[in-house]
Specification:
Two copies of one chain form a homodimer. Chain A is α+β, with helices and mostly antiparallel strands and 586 residues long. Helices cover 29% and strands 24% of the residues of chain A. The first copy, chain A, is built from 17 helices and 23 strands. The N and C termini of chain A lie far apart (61 Å).
Chain lengths: 586, 586
């Protein structure tokens, strides 16, 4: 037996017990006749003591040569510690070692196995198995497990059945790119890895499963942005015989359950709801962070028709009141203006109003606006004495997006984004379609199976951009953690949707024929939602970097630096698959 | 709201309640002025009554036109049923319908949605969403969910952490064929889908996760045999600082937990253990079904050196005593001899001994053996009066395999394979290596990371076939449901193993370099096991066909008949992947 106890469990009440422990050498302190070793495992750290007066010389000798990360087994007696360490649960005791057994040696790790490591991102990914030994990463993975268990328990108790859907499915050119898998037995043909189990969960509803969920890997061959992974995990859910209200209630229950179970945070009452239009108007963003205010004030009425042409020509003039920063120096403000003019934000400039402590205003456009005008701005943006009003103008969508970026930046600077505060929000009534400038056509904003709101189907022909969908997102602290919709369950309406999305009947049939056919055999009304497990876990865990919550993440080029994948494969393998690599030089 | 109750929950205590129900039309009985409809959902069946005397004529009219599998919603009052149906939980009541709402029509299904359907295998796979509506399949999927939940709860309680490992990994020519995934961003390179997360779970042990599990999809591009799937699910587990005894104890606890939770079957005491050698000798099989006897008796000593040359020239003469079939007619026995001579079994012939009820014997080789001889055979095979001893001879391995097939066949015929009886067994001490005639080399019987038993490493050079491994299988009712081993955790021993498996140091480094490197940074002793989730579930569920426990299985050509995958992909997709399809005519 390698151990009688873990390194996290011995207490003062265990004193005088003979124990066997195993683990990694975290740290060795050598005083010559006394050697202390911190022995680490997943459960904690226990101090070992090798005492020259009480132990044979060879043992002290052996202990003094232990290196960092050596794997050892020791036998010894639990004794009271001279200088107790109140910072660790085992801090009252230490082990007087009588036997030391080196189970495995270790080279010196390429970075320190400490909470704050000196290892860079790439090095940590290459030696991920060492990175996982560090408390923060290990605790993140354990936290992720707890999230998954809590999700499964909640949904199981609500009569949901976890059903495993296939990974080797069929490619669908619509949407993001698929990863494909050549079939050896069906030459020239390919499977695709699922971007989500969308069609399968709908088929399970047709199949009468009533309530389905699955924590499932999904795949998307996109050009990776920061913090995107080619494979990611989804909490995928679907229910039959429900309306939007049923779905929102059940899944806000899930989020509340997770917050209560994992964070001890109890959300009272319903999670607030906001329409997409309102979110865009108030926050310039369909996933607003409502932990703090700074709602947009639209100033067109009070700021236009004066002599300030920049505003007069703008489609939208909007501002936010940044709390308590009227003391920003001219230099601070110039820097802020530079910040909003960065290409990533893209504003042309920024007008500001200092709300003085005495109730007067001082703005960068005093030439055009008097105190009375500015007082109206303050009223509309909700500014109080001490605040700084920041105003942007121009094209409506651009202003909203820029002002949203500014709002988030100021919240960050002011420490308003407290990761231990949780402010969930439903955003509802999303547009059904989204116009794409590049291809000059409409795309499904959610996906092609989303149902339009009742009575809006007629608008599809005349004002497609205005049709609202029965679609909803669950937003947490400015992040979309889940999204879903009421589905179309009627063949004819699905045909109409495909037509509006530019599918010919043949294309629709080729790609989704099985779904359209299934709908002819008694499809029930159904709806669903999917949560991004990686994102949800990281936000609940108080961080925004999903890689820190994934055991073996890939880098931004989609590479696994540890196993060095992807890699070339044997010619024989290619031939068996009837494939040739054909790289065109550019 | 689509429903106030499901179709499985109304009871006599609900009489007089106004309810709303939704579901599928299972059955319509039309008596003109009275129409009964069986309304079905996942939870059960509720009888609806449309009564011409108590309801408007239009309602009766509408109800009488309902077709099978129509999706409807009804409102009505719960009333006491005239002729109660004790076979269903809702059999005391029916719903007097006041409002009928057709939610969706249905074409006539291609097969009946009944427990015993008229649909063939292919048709059922093509319309799997309809097949899932049938009670047996639906109950199987719900059962599978319960198995998964019970596994997760047991292992979580034992401090195991479920860690998600990547699906896009690296191809390893060793073992079965990989499915590969071309990388668009890394041209000419491929990911592979995991055959199991073996190396990742070992790296998690190096990473100090201590106890890992995962219910995870695995992929194997093999020529499919009956009841094999290209993608399958594994309960994958690994532990650090353990010896074989720790693993066996913990995981027999898991099986006992599943049997108790899901089947109400309580296994007393330890699960029996048998060495591989003993299993082969007694049952000719490394996964013996021990629900019944018929252990092999080796008859060389008592049957050779007489004048029967067939036996004299045989490496092994072995027999089983088939209970209670001494009454088989000559014709029955001839048929049985034909059966063992089928190419699938491959015996050349069979000698039999009737154990007469009076204690005498009558055999097909009476010419060579007297009563005394045959009494010895009976003693060795454990035959009693009334039994039939069946004896095969020839090459040892062949005889064992043939006699094992015969034993299973006779057990099947005699009804000894009761699916509701559960007889688990550990088979231990497997050989480390397995000789392959085709390639004239040894392969790892389990996998290249399995540790040889202590003190046997030396045998590797001289008698590699005799080296035993610290490997174990958990067998249930004649099926291997799980298998695992103590792993090598030492770089040098792993190098030695790779050498013996015919890897050059370069090959070993190219494929497993990251693992060998990881072992240099303090790898702990570790061991693991993996269970076939599909197989385990089906056996616990009392069936042996895994397809019946998979929501969307593929057929024997690896095709998903429902979505028609795999399929060709667009030329543009291929070009983006720098690939050309290159099918060679044969």
């Amino acid at each position: 037996m390698y151990r009688t106890h873990t390194n996290g469990e011995l207490r003062a009440s265990d004193i005088d017990k003979e124990v066997t422990l195993s683990g990694w050498v975290q740290h060795v302190r050598n005083k010559g006749f006394l050697v202390w070793v911190d022995l680490r495992d997943r459960y904690g750290i226990t101090q070992l003591i090798f005492d020259g007066e009480r132990s044979p010389k060879e043992l002290i000798e052996k202990a003094s040569h232990l290196g960092r990360e050596y794997v050892i087994q020791v036998k010894g007696k639990v004794i009271e510690r001279q200088s107790k360490n109140p910072n660790i649960p085992t801090g009252d005791i230490e082990i007087l070692v009588s036997e030391l057994n080196i189970l495995n040696e270790s080279k010196t790790p390429p970075f320190t196995i400490e909470d704050k490591t000196d290892g860079g991102e790439e090095l940590r990914l290459k030696y991920r198995y060492l990175d996982i030994r560090r408390n923060p990463i290990r605790e993140n993975l354990i936290f992720r497990h707890k999230v998954a268990m809590a999700v499964r328990n909640y949904l199981s108790n609500e009569d949901f059945i976890e059903v495993e859907t296939p990974y080797l499915i069929k490619s669908t050119p619509e949407g993001a790119r698929d990863f494909v898998v050549p079939s050896r037995m069906n030459k020239g043909q390919f499977y695709a890895l699922p971007q989500s189990p969308q069609t399968f969960k709908q088929l399970l509803m047709v199949g009468g499963m009533d309530k389905y969920f699955q924590i499932v890997r999904c795949f998307r061959d996109e050009d990776l942005r920061a913090d995107r992974q080619p494979e990611f995990t989804q909490i995928d859910c679907e229910m039959a015989f429900v309306e939007q209200e049923d779905v929102l209630e059940l899944f806000e229950g899930l989020l509340k359950h997770l917050l209560a179970e994992l964070k001890g945070v109890h959300i009272e009452g319903n999670i607030p709801r906001m329409t997409y239009d309102e979110a865009m108007q108030k926050y310039g963003n369909d996933k607003p962070d409502i932990r703090f205010g700074m709602e947009f004030g639209e100033l067109n009425e009070v700021a236009q028709h004066k002599d300030f042409n920049v505003f007069n020509q703008a489609e939208l003039v909007a501002g936010i009141a940044v709390p308590g920063v009227n003391s920003y120096s001219r230099k601070d403000i110039d820097k802020l203006i530079d910040w909003v003019r960065r290409p990533q934000v893209g504003a042309k400039g920024m007008v500001y109003v200092r709300c003085n402590d005495d109730g007067t205003f001082r703005s960068s456009v005093d030439k055009f606006y008097d105190q009375e005008d500015l007082a109206k701005w303050a009223e509309i943006t909700g500014a109080k004495p001490g605040d700084l009003i920041c105003v942007l103008s121009g094209n409506k969508n651009e202003v909203r997006s820029q002002l949203s970026a500014l709002r988030m930046e100021m919240a960050e600077r002011l420490g308003l984004r407290n990761p231990e505060e949780f402010a969930p929000l439903w955003v509802i009534d999303f547009p059904l379609l989204e116009w794409d400038e590049d291809t000059q056509r409409y795309y499904a904003m959610h996906h092609p199976f989303t149902a339009p709101k009742k009575g809006q189907l007629e608008l599809l022909d005349t004002k497609p951009g205005e049709v609202k969908a029965n679609a909803y997102d669950l937003v947490l602290n400015g992040n979309e953690i889940g999204g879903g919709s009421i589905r179309i369950h009627d063949t004819q309406m699905q045909d109409t949707m495909f037509k509006h999305l530019g599918f010919t009947p043949e294309e629709a049939k080729k790609q989704f024929g099985f779904l359209l056919e299934a709908f002819q055999y008694g499809a029930p009304p159904h709806a669903g939602i999917a949560f991004g497990m990686d994102r949800l876990t990281s936000i609940l865990g108080g961080e925004e970097t999903i890689r820190e919550f994934i055991a073996f993440p890939k880098n931004n080029m989609g590479r696994d630096l540890m196993i060095d994948a992807p890699a070339t494969i044997d010619l024989a393998q290619l031939q068996e698959l009837s494939l040739k690599v054909d790289i065109k030089e550019k």
